[in-house]
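Run folding on both entries below.
>entry_1
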Amino acid sequence: MLNDVRYAIRTLTKARAFALVAISVLALGIGLNIALYSIVYSVFFRPLPVREPDRLVYLYWMFGKYQQLGPIGFRQFEHFKDHKEGLSELTAHWAGAGRLTADGETDQIRGETVAANYFDVLGVKPLLGRTFGPADDLPATEGALIISHNFWIRRFNGDPNVLGKQVRLHIWMSERHFTIVGVMGEGFRGVAGPWTPSQYWVTFGQSTADMRRMRFNVIARLAPGVTAAQANSIVATQGEALVKPGAPYRERYLALPANRVRIPADPTASAVPARLAATMMVVVGIVLLIAAANIAGMLAARGVGRDAEMAMRLVLGANGRRLVRQLLTESVLLSAGGGLLGLIVARTLLDLFRKYTPQEYAVDIVIDPGVLVLAALLCGIVGIAIGIAPAVRATRKDLLSSLPGTNLGITRRAPSRLRHAVVIPQVGLSLVLLLAAGFHIRSLMKIELANLGYDPKHVSVISGALRAAPEERVDQPPPGHAERQAERSRAFYRRVLAAIVAVPGTGGAAITTRLPVNAPDGSAWNAVSLDAFLAGDDQGIPAGRTSVSTGYFRTMGMPLVAGRDFDDRDSRTSPKVAVISASLARRLWPDGGAIGRSIGPKNNFPMTGEAIEWYEVVGIVNDIDPIVRDRDRVPQVYLALNQEWWPSFSSIVARVPRDSVAVLQALKQAVLGADALAEVYRVQTMEQLIAAMLYPRRLAAAILGASGLIGMVLAVLGLYGVISYSVAQRVQEIGIRTALGADRRDVEWLIVREGARILVFGSAVGVALTYAALRVTSRFVALPEMDAGTWIAVPAILSGVILLACYVPARRAARLDPLDALRQL
């Protein structure tokens, strides 16, 4: 074997160009597969970073008509703690967002509120400090806070003296001071889910969360000798005591292995992403298949040139098995080189993924030993696959025609079936990838170029809050307390808007309780007109509800269709007013004349004595479209924020001349300078928000597009190589045809016809595979719109590129000198 390896290295070193091309082609295919598998493995398959993760289970409540899985309530949690046969320990956690302020800077971060034994049950130790103890589950003036390694590095620059530092954390609708008592290790980011890494942990007892009114995720460690299946049976039996008698639908409790629950808050939420990930794995697998077929064709062509070498070795006593082993050694070496270079490609792709992935989709991804084992297996399989056919062919030689010095081999044409059998699948599979990429890119383009009903360009979004004053943090507020808070809040917002408008070049600013990219889904209101209500029709039309300040529509680039904007006339004491979307106006008043009419929220199931609050319609604006077109346009109702009792805002929007860092910093300072208790935890542009929402679609389109282009290039190169080799094998034939009167066009057509035949068969295979794949895939994931233009344009473009690749060797063949060809006879 060592001799085979040394000989293979010498052989490939002599054919440097061939080896470099083969290794590079394989590196693309293997690198893509390693990178995507690393992402998929990190999200869906990597074991939890805890002690013995296979010994952990999640407890769930199954209820309702459709048997949904829900979290466990406090009463159920206490029940299973008292009856934990088969379970050694139980703990609870719940993920959420908080605002952490330290050294005058505020961050909005995600974390977990946990039971005090959370880290003990998981078996995780801190890098610095300590974890929670029983005393940390009791209310205290100074709460204990544990932070993640990532947050420690990013926010505190890895300061080893961070322990004991006091910070302020706003969580569960209130805020309090906490002391940092621990920093977790780099590999532990909580168990809330791959897309929601935790950056802090606090206990239920020291937060304002009332566990008795909550439902939370319960995780338990199995007792020694108990399997997950046995624990599931035990939990189901113990849970029967919790089932309410006479429930309309069956209720039960079950235990699921923790490694199968990627998102504890919604254990079924990973099903669709997992299917999408599987689809992407198939896509990049096709790229590797095309690359392998390409190299197999190159090896087959190279094998014909080594006929004399193989024949001489057979004559000298080598058996067929010996030659197969030698040639497979060469192909496996090529694959190993492609794998090593593929690791560099994968590392580069993962670095790009981390760099351009929005924070909302950030995943901790590494190329771990399991991925390296997969890469090694992949290299071995690919090496054998690309080398087996040429190796077997080498043992089936006609020795007399293959020996050097004979003329029998000169006139013999190498069989073309193997070459065609290798290239036709390349063409077909590349067409599958290009069609899939075309469908996704066309759908994405429709979204990107759509008129959203507003202008997101040069709109900045400031997210922040106004903390309660010390005198307002009381458990039993005195009379008029809420009104004083509301007035203080309104005065703050007025100062903020005035300060933002004063920033040079600002084209307007406003406050909104909901951004248009997060438009409500229609569950907020059932809008009914006063006319219809008096006529007895009180069903209402589902509509979204948003409260906005004066100038919002101008700032967002939403022109008024009719009526007026909110202004100073709309105060707390004036009649309530509303601006509605054009579609809602048409549905409520088909004959027109919505301005001046009254509209109100009518719930489908009103409480006894409920009175509808009527709003006068003073304006009509264009409808807004959802960024992701997975749902229909929803009519909107806009209310005047000045008339709200508690005008707390979700966001401040400002139209600025340019999206520069200096402008964003000026907007942040304008908010912070309006009040000593103001906080700003995020400043970004509207286009960045939209990009974050479209990121999954853009990523899928990018992967499909890149895979399709790589597949097409490989298929074209493979076909070009086959046609070029065919021309080299048919030199004598072409010379004879030319000598007998064939002109250049005849010769060109002779060569192009071979490529066209491959193109026709390959395209037929590709279209059939695409149709079959779409039929199968549609059962699992929502497919993009498949327009006729893509069905026509993509095969046409592929055909043009392939025929051009065939024309180059055909033109070279037509220029052959027939005398030179005839002299070789």
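>entry_2
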Amino acid sequence: AVFLVRLMFCLFADRTGLFEPGLFREILERKTRYDGSDVGPLVNHVFAVLDQPNSSRQKSLDDDIKLLPYVNGHLFERRFDPPAFDKSARKTLLKCCAFNWSAVSPAIFGAMFQKVMDEDKGKRRSIGAHYTSEKNILKALGPLLIDGLRAEFERATSQKELEALLSRISRITVLDPACGCGNFLVIAYRELRELEIEIHRRLARVRRREGERLLSLEFAKGINVSAMYGIEIEEFPCRVAETALYLIDHLMNMKASEEFGENFIRLPLDKAPHITHSNALRLDWSSVVSKDRLSCVVGNPPFIGKAFRTKDQSKDMDLVFGDWDGRGELDYVASWYVKTMQYVTGTTIPVAFVSTNSITQGEQVSALWSRLLQCGVSIHFAHRTFRWDNDAPGIAGVYCVIIGWGFSEPRQRLLFDYDTPRSDPMVRKVDRINPYLVDSASVFIRPRRKPLCGVPPISFGNMPNDGGHLLLSREEKSELLKREPSAKSFLRRIYGSKEFINGIDRWCLWLVDAKPSDLRSMPEIMKRVEAVRAHRLKSDRPATRKLAETPALFGEIRQPARRYLAIPKTSSENRRFIPMGFLGPTVITTTEIQMVIDADFYHFGVLTSTMHMAWMRQVCGRLESRYRYSAEIVYNNFPWPDQPSEKHIQAVRSAAQAVLQVRTSQAGQSLADIYDTDVMPTALVKAHRLLDKAVDRCYRSQPFENELARIRFLFDRYAALTAGGQLSLPAPKVNRSPRKSPAKKPRSSQTKRRGLRRSNDSYPLFSHTSFGQPHSI
């Protein structure tokens, strides 16, 4: 790895004027054998010479090698055995030498490193190594540092103002506490040097008018790579970052030389970037750079979800958080927020981090941001959720936010919003930004056991806890019925999120009303029941072992006796709507389905509207990048319309039924098929559009211009509710067809204990789009 980094430096130097043009290539071509056997030793010899001052070099050096400059900067200090080359490797290296490296930005080094790491994706995931594109780096650096300097430059016209700005830039220092290959530092340094050159250009015009001239020594007093500080846990990226900074410095020196007709090459390297190889979460950052010398903190800390943390990473978090409540719910990236807060407390140092959007959603918001805000942190600017990309092959699919914050009050707050995660941002000046990245009051959506408004309660589905022995695929069900025809009356269709959305045929043995004689007469079923007992007895949990006393039943049963609304707990982030639907009491659900038992078409309409989807996207948790619909966070905290008129309620009901009718017309298509954003049927798009209008009118007469406006409205309503206000939402009457009460039947003790009953109630089933298929056998 170090060998490759040094080669990269030489390839750049050969094309950018650090070496005599083509010198490195000529040495390789003329002084190595065609079979490549001596390339490694020769290159290592070149590295050694580059690390020697001219006064210390052997007098007998080859004439061409004597022409190599002294580089210093510790870049070529370490000695090691060279890799072996052959004919093919030599040819490849010479081909690299022929490439015009002067046209390549050192900022792509991170992407090159990621390409190398792709061979060990497990390691890359474990350390959260992702390398941000220049476009996304500038989203953070712009409002944090560069935009303010450029605005000051635009206002500066006099020599005094321009010289003062140059002096200010010369004192800027930047820290990236998770710097990787140094992309943030490279781009920051390049932008500062670009601005420095522009200032000198304007200053030169001013001075000519005033009879003065540009002094080349002023560049030596300007910002240098020693202003860039980084901390990185892996050694190889540290060396890449150092090299990239040296090279971007040289490229900017070349640009200045061309601009002003003077030679600004800095060799030997007398100043070096400060890249520290260490675990940033266990390091005192003041040992890297004193905070009274620091201008800003910026970076892209590791993307590691709480479920993927290693033991060492959990220990890192324990050291940073101490006894901080709720830290177990947080992603690893939250450690950098807290560590940085501890470091910059008492200063006006601004901070900007690229992070996964999970820290602005779900339970993580209150766990992290409530304490940060209590400590005095203020959000200065933010980019709401966007699709993260980088310059490496195989772009990672991560949804990110950028949060700029600090302890000072900014001159202006900027909120960047995106129509879609892949679109360009639109920026607005706002008075406030809360931790959900909404221009609304700083409220925290905490778990709530009961709905905030007067709507039907929500509950989990049933938990089998059976080791899979009570669950059957379509093929297993058919095989069982061949062997055990009498099992037909105990088979029920069962749905989790995956089955419900994708129309997967899955079944279960539902033995709630099975008599002991029934079970004994079905040996195939008894085998499965015994397997469930054995599975539960093996558990380390006493509660699970106790369930072995009733092995014929699911571990937890919450099955309703009437129609209910099914809401998948997990759904793709690529859908505009979470597919929901009504199911009858004979259709069993797992804990991957949330059930609203007394919901009618009005509730369905509001919950499947864009209004509720906007709320869900903002406050739900995530599984990887997929939505995780939470009863206690999403549903129970949702601010429903306040006292909608009966006219508006009926309009929602009618529009909701229209959506379901369109779905029914798509026979043979799964919900995943018809809710695919790219191919969503036109009729369904129109039906949802009409439903959205009906739901919006329940909230207010004016339409909502975009999703952010909806979220802002809902957050303001939530803040009013939780501040003591109360929404008096009448629970709309549930429309049910009149029916005779079923004859009462004796219930088993198990059925009584679990509050269950058999039901012959008949309901229209809008569970998914193959509606012609009955939900019984």
